[in-house]
Structure formats: structure tokens, C-alpha cells
């Protein structure tokens, strides 16, 4: 513990041989971070400049990609600083803020995927009502709720944790996640109950809604003509791949925290890096390759770049 101006510092012990491989870690993670920013914002840029992509589905995709960049920005800059630092430490207040952004933006992804699932359901199952239901106002409300609801829930957990007494100043990880609860002297039953409630509202309910929605789409598509089935496959498959990917990484995060010290340190580091590296790059690749209109504009953009 370093106590300067009444600031409590937490030591991050999840790094493996960081003193020996600091520059290798830094180069790899810096490259990944730049790729995340470039890949995600390239798709967002295409959606922004092309009017035929100004539809609810593509607006939700742009929001999801921006969310991925914000999620990564919460982790990568601090991680890169830690690689080049003698001590891997973070103030408790900064740790709580990182925890807030990590779970708030992570939960937002589930809600954005729910909004996208509903958009596909209306488009495929109720095509005549689509323009009436999915208006700009509806899209704006969905986007606002997707970011606001998780932020409100996670902020309550942060406020509950802020004044709790710390008996441990060593965090078994490379950034602040649910492991911060192991720092407290006593566990709060109220916080645990509210945490379960927050998970149900921001993760479980959206996941069940998505599964229900795509099941309905699958049933209706199966009963419809070939054109409807093709449309469903083209637009729903990328969303399902992203959902599966993100759900697996959420399971990773839970496993890492629950197993704690029982898990080998190197394996835990690799699993943690999977959470922050794989998915933010997976999103733009899937939407860039699998979404027909985005793929078409992407090819045109690269062909123009080659000519120049």
C-alpha cells in the first residue's frame, strides 16, 4: 500500500513475467488496440457516410462497434502504461471507475444485441409494420436505454463498494473486474443481492429475449418462401455469431473470477486477454464480411485506396 494524499493504491498481480517481456507485451497490445480502433471506426465511417446504410439495423451495428471501442479504451491505455511501469498499481477510485465502465459497457452490448434482435424480428416477421414500428424515435430510445440502464445498475454497485473497508490491497488480475470484491474485509449481502438483480436485468433477460426472438424468426422463416429464409440467414447469422462470441467471453470472465488462485497464473492471463482482445476485433470482421451492404462498401473503399 502506498498512501499519498490519502489515496489507496491496489497492486495488480495478474501479469506474468512483465519485467522480462514488457516490450513484447506492449508491442502486441498496442498493435491490437490500434487494429480495434481502425477496424471498428472504418465500419462506423461507412455507415455514417452512406445514406443507404442509415437504417435501424446499421445504426445499431454502429452503436455496437462504438461500444466495443469504448470498452477497449477502458482497458488498453492503463494496461499499456502498466507494461512500461516498474509497479503495476491503480488507485482504488480509478479501479472502481474501471470496474464501472467494464460491466456497464459489457451489459450495454447485451441490450444492443437485444435491440438488433427485435429489429430483425420486426423486419422479417412484420415487414409491413416495420417503417411504423422502427422509427427514428424508437431507435433513439433503444440506444439511450442500452447505455443508461446498465450504467444506473452498475453505479449502484460502485457506490456500495466505495465506502467498504479494504483488508487486501492485492488484486489477482490485470484490470479491475469482479475480483475487487475480494479486497473487502466483509462481503455485503445487500450488494450481492443487487448484483444478482443487475445481472438478471442487464444480461439474463436480454439473452432470453434474443433467443426467443431468433427462435420465432427461425420458425417463421422455415414456413416462408426461399427469399425470406435467405434474408433471415444473411442478416441474423452475424448477430448470432457476435452473441455467441460475447456470451463465451462473459463466461470466461466469470470462470476467471470464481476460480481465482486455483487457476494457473499463465492460463488465467491468457483467458483474461481473450476477453479484451478477441471480441472487439471479432465484431467488425463479422459485420464487414457477413453483412452484404457493408461488405460491398468496404470492398469499394479498399479498391479506391489501391487506385490512389
UniProtKB/TrEMBL annotation:
<dbReference type="GO" id="GO:0004984">
    <property type="term" value="F:olfactory receptor activity"/>
</dbReference>
<dbReference type="GO" id="GO:0005886">
    <property type="term" value="C:plasma membrane"/>
</dbReference>
<feature type="transmembrane region" description="Helical">
    <location>
        <begin position="139"/>
        <end position="162"/>
    </location>
</feature>
<dbReference type="InterPro" id="IPR000276">
    <property type="entry name" value="GPCR_Rhodpsn"/>
</dbReference>
<keyword id="KW-0675">Receptor</keyword>
<keyword id="KW-0812">Transmembrane</keyword>
<keyword id="KW-0716">Sensory transduction</keyword>
<keyword id="KW-1003">Cell membrane</keyword>
<dbReference type="GO" id="GO:0005549">
    <property type="term" value="F:odorant binding"/>
</dbReference>
<feature type="transmembrane region" description="Helical">
    <location>
        <begin position="57"/>
        <end position="76"/>
    </location>
</feature>
<feature type="transmembrane region" description="Helical">
    <location>
        <begin position="96"/>
        <end position="118"/>
    </location>
</feature>
<feature type="transmembrane region" description="Helical">
    <location>
        <begin position="193"/>
        <end position="215"/>
    </location>
</feature>
<keyword id="KW-1133">Transmembrane helix</keyword>
<dbReference type="InterPro" id="IPR017452">
    <property type="entry name" value="GPCR_Rhodpsn_7TM"/>
</dbReference>
<dbReference type="Pfam" id="PF13853">
    <property type="entry name" value="7tm_4"/>
</dbReference>
<dbReference type="InterPro" id="IPR000725">
    <property type="entry name" value="Olfact_rcpt"/>
</dbReference>
<dbReference type="GO" id="GO:0004930">
    <property type="term" value="F:G protein-coupled receptor activity"/>
</dbReference>
<dbReference type="InterPro" id="IPR052921">
    <property type="entry name" value="GPCR1_Superfamily_Member"/>
</dbReference>
<feature type="transmembrane region" description="Helical">
    <location>
        <begin position="236"/>
        <end position="257"/>
    </location>
</feature>
<keyword id="KW-1015">Disulfide bond</keyword>
<comment type="similarity">
    <text>Belongs to the G-protein coupled receptor 1 family.</text>
</comment>
<keyword id="KW-0325">Glycoprotein</keyword>
<keyword id="KW-0552">Olfaction</keyword>
<feature type="domain" description="G-protein coupled receptors family 1 profile">
    <location>
        <begin position="39"/>
        <end position="287"/>
    </location>
</feature>
<feature type="transmembrane region" description="Helical">
    <location>
        <begin position="23"/>
        <end position="48"/>
    </location>
</feature>
<keyword id="KW-0472">Membrane</keyword>
<keyword id="KW-0297">G-protein coupled receptor</keyword>
<feature type="transmembrane region" description="Helical">
    <location>
        <begin position="269"/>
        <end position="289"/>
    </location>
</feature>
<protein>
    <recommendedName>
        <fullName>Olfactory receptor</fullName>
    </recommendedName>
</protein>
<keyword id="KW-0807">Transducer</keyword>
Amino acid at each position: 500500500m502506498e498512501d499519498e494524499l490519502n489515496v489507496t493504491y491496489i497492486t495488480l498481480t495478474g501479469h506474468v513475467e512483465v519485467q522480462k517481456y514488457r516490450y513484447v507485451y506492449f508491442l502486441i497490445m498496442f498493435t491490437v488496440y490500434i487494429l480495434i480502433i481502425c477496424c471498428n471506426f472504418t465500419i462506423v465511417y461507412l455507415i455514417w457516410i452512406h445514406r443507404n446504410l442509415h437504417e435501424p439495423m446499421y445504426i445499431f451495428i454502429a452503436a455496437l462497434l462504438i461500444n466495443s471501442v469504448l470498452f477497449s479504451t477502458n482497458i488498453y491505455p492503463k494496461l499499456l502504461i502498466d507494461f512500461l511501469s516498474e509497479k503495476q498499481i491503480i488507485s482504488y477510485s480509478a479501479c472502481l471507475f474501471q470496474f464501472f465502465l467494464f460491466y456497464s459497457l459489457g451489459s450495454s452490448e447485451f441490450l444492443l444485441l437485444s435491440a438488433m434482435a427485435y429489429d430483425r424480428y420486426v423486419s422479417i416477421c412484420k415487414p409491413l409494420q416495420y417503417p411504423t414500428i422502427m422509427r427514428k424515435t424508437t431507435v433513439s430510445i433503444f440506444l439511450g436505454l442500452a447505455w443508461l440502464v446498465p450504467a444506473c445498475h452498475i453505479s449502484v454497485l460502485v457506490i456500495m463498494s466505495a465506502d467498504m473497508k479494504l483488508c487486501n490491497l492485492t488484486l489477482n488480475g490485470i484490470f479491475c473486474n469482479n475480483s475487487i470484491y475480494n479486497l473487502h474485509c466483509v462481503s455485503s449481502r445487500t450488494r450481492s443481492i443487487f448484483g444478482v438483480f443487475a445481472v438478471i436485468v442487464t444480461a439474463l433477460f436480454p439473452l432470453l429475449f434474443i433467443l426467443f426472438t431468433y427462435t420465432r424468426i427461425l420458425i417463421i422463416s422455415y414456413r416462408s418462401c426461399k427469399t425470406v429464409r435467405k434474408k433471415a440467414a444473411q442478416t441474423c447469422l452475424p448477430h448470432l455469431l457476435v452473441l455467441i462470441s460475447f456470451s463465451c467471453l462473459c463466461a470466461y470472465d466469470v470462470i476467471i473470477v470464481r476460480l481465482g488462485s486455483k487457476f494457473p497464473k499463465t492460463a488465467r492471463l491468457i483467458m483474461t486477454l481473450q476477453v479484451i482482445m478477441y471480441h472487439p476485433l471479432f465484431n467488425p470482421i463479422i459485420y464487414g464480411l457477413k453483412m452484404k451492404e457493408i461488405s460491398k462498401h468496404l470492398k469499394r473503399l479498399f479498391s479506391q485506396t489501391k487506385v490512389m
